[in-house]
Amino acid sequence: MSKPKFAMYWAASCGGCEIAVLNIHEKILDVDANFDVVFWPVAMDAKYKDVEAMEDGSILLTLWNGGIRNDENEHIAHLLRRKSKILVAFGSCACEGCIPGLANFSPIKEMVDTAFTTLTTDNPDNLRPQTSYTMPEGIITIPTLYPVLRTLDQVVDVDYYMPGCPPESHQIAAVIDLVVQVLQGKAELPPKGATIGAGNSTVCDECPRKRNVKTIKEFGRIQLMHADPELCLLEQGIPCNGPATRSGCNARCPSAGAQCIGCYGPAEGVVDYGARLISAFASVIDSNKPDEIDKILDGLVDPAGQFYRFNLAGSLLRSSKSAQKG
Amino acid sequence: MQRITIDPITRLEGHGKIEIFLNEQGNVTNTYFQIPELRGFERFCVGRPVEEMPLLTNRICGVCPEAHHMAAAKATDAVYHVEVPRTGKMLRELLYSAFYCTDHTTHFYALGGPDFIMGPDAPVAERNILGVIHKVGLEIGGKVIQMRKYGHTVVEIIGGRKVHPCTSIPGGLTKGITEEQRKEIEQMGRWAIEFAQFSLKAFNDIVLSNKAYLDLIVGDVYTHKTYYMGLVDANNKVNFYDGKVRVVAPDGKEYVKYEPKDYAANIAEHVEPWTYLKFPYLKNVGWKGFVDGPDSGVYMATPLSRLNAADGMTTPLAQAEYEKFYSTLGGKPVHQRLAIHWARLIELLYAAERWVELATDPEITSPNFHAIPTATPTEGVGIVEAPRGTLTHHYWTDERGVVTRVNLIVGTTNNYAPITMSIKKAADNLIKNGNVNEGLLNMVEMAFRAYDPCFGCATHSLPGQMPLEINIRKPDGEILDVLKQFVD
Predict the structure, then answer these.
(1) ipTM
(2) Contact between A50 and B373 using a beta-carbon 8 Å cutoff
(3) Which residues of B touch A106 (CB under 8 A)?
(4) Number of structural domains in chain A
(5) Residue B486: is its pLDDT beyond 50?
(6) What angle do CA B202, B10, B63 make, to 5 degrees?
(7) B117: part of which helix (H) or strand (E)?
(8) Which domain holds residue A10?
(9) Where are the domains of chain B?
């Protein structure tokens, strides 16, 4: 009997998800032993047309990383959806847009204009990249950038979500174990739409730092103090995203002295990440006076980025109005 | 006119594209190497607190986030006019040295090495990491995995995470290391030195002692006489983390040496309307198109460039290899692109030696790893050597340290023009009078593989194969012939 088919694809991403998969080391052999890897551009050689030639639904499992930034990304998303039984939004970009999703705060034209007018750009004719350009020898083309970056499930139906930037390797290994057990009839798949390879609580629940339910009079900046290595960062005034962020990473950043920046996305049951974080921050503020509260909040120098750093594209907001207009 | 399209080139973030145009006689008239992506970091980092830049710019590249983390951290130090304590600098450089070992290992064994170890004429099915393991010995596979593991372990101990480290902040780091961790790091570093020596010996035995391979390295097909760039310390020795940027001319003489803050007086980026990526060049030489020579501002920034731009290495084993390199290849500078692979291994040895040097410094476990900035933040430039070239981050902020403007010149981008030239030269040499040699596939592949290109930064992979498909079309678009490699 032939082995079930496996695919992995990257769209608008950084490659860190691929590195995280390689970092499962010997576990990668389990993938090889249990699956026929049919499409994985970073690691092997099949092309789009090979995927097109496959029967619909013939790939058992596809891990998709990266957001939808251009028409090529969207085309491949539809193709792999059609060919895959199980499509997993793998990593923060596919689940919620990640850092590249911050582009949705401004119109695409500003993004391109900025890149082509930087300090060192030599551009006397004020050129911009053209999706189709006529050279003396013929026409050459590049993909069209979309006005906003979209998450995978804003383009196609998604079966499971695996958060993280990138997903932690021990979580990837656990998911591979689970799928192998399902194949052997020893376990069942979670319900469609579930988040896999992560916890059901918050980063705070995994964090080793001590919490004293202490409130603060001001927000601080991590570089402007020597933070106590054992106390909760938020209670020291450092805007840490732990309270709204899904567990699963073993609180890696707070354990290393850095604030959680929210890469595992909204905790279970959280509809809007930013709203949850605002309420968490509000609860540590030690004041009842509106003026004083305003002053304390002024200490958060970038509220938009603070509350939607990783999940703007996937949030209820999705993008600014000016970005939607293109 | 005929047209050859190579699309997609899988290891260039899946989306790199090469167009080759032939004239009526079937000879190359022009080639275009297009980069189809733009994610817009220079725009959307505006408005963010500057201390987040080492975290945000990590996400430019998940293969070399350590390079962005370090360039960004150094730029934020400069923005705050703060001097990082000695221990802080050493911890960052220690993390960075271990990262270099991992990164160079992956490239040599999985991507670039197979061309040499197996030979460019080896059957396609053997020209990959598995072929390398069969030829060099089974235990090498385990060693390569071990080297990657050790490197990532050090990145995690100091940087907090294996991918996208999080501990560098303006003025230093959020944490130090314990004596126990130091010992573990030292032990892994000593193993890394042995691994690097083993790798150089394998290169010597298999490649340098084989005349055909050596001829390929020194041959003309892969030679361009350009300027070379690299970071050097106060004695003009190679350094990956800190120093001044030195550029040597095609004749090997120093052309300029500048402080990171003066980069914009020396570098400009040319724009072409058919690609999303810009072409950096030496501003004071000028952009003369895709040509080499002393009158063209095109420069290269790779392991070979760093060796060419420096006067030597600071560590004894790497220095000995450096001297052997230039005596074997006939003096400085070396212009042959395939020598980048050898240079990369010399850097691997240097990085491993530096790793142990730093791990055995008595101050490495000191708690003095962060200086609190006191000056008002303004503007700053941070430069490190990414494995794929000089990496420049430049930020402007308001008085609260909120970013108002960003400029980035990323590692591989430096090499966009030279890679384009190498592709054209390979095509020129192989396509004659309409005969498209099958060897074109591997020759084109080798031309840009030497640079370890990382457009959009995601080119590393395991099997060491570059899937290519070349469609040869008539002017009306009808396909005359299809050449394939690793494509079924």
Answers:
(1) 0.95
(2) no
(3) 43-44
(4) 3
(5) no
(6) 65
(7) helix B113-117
(8) 5-99+149-183
(9) 2-37+426-485, 83-217+336-366
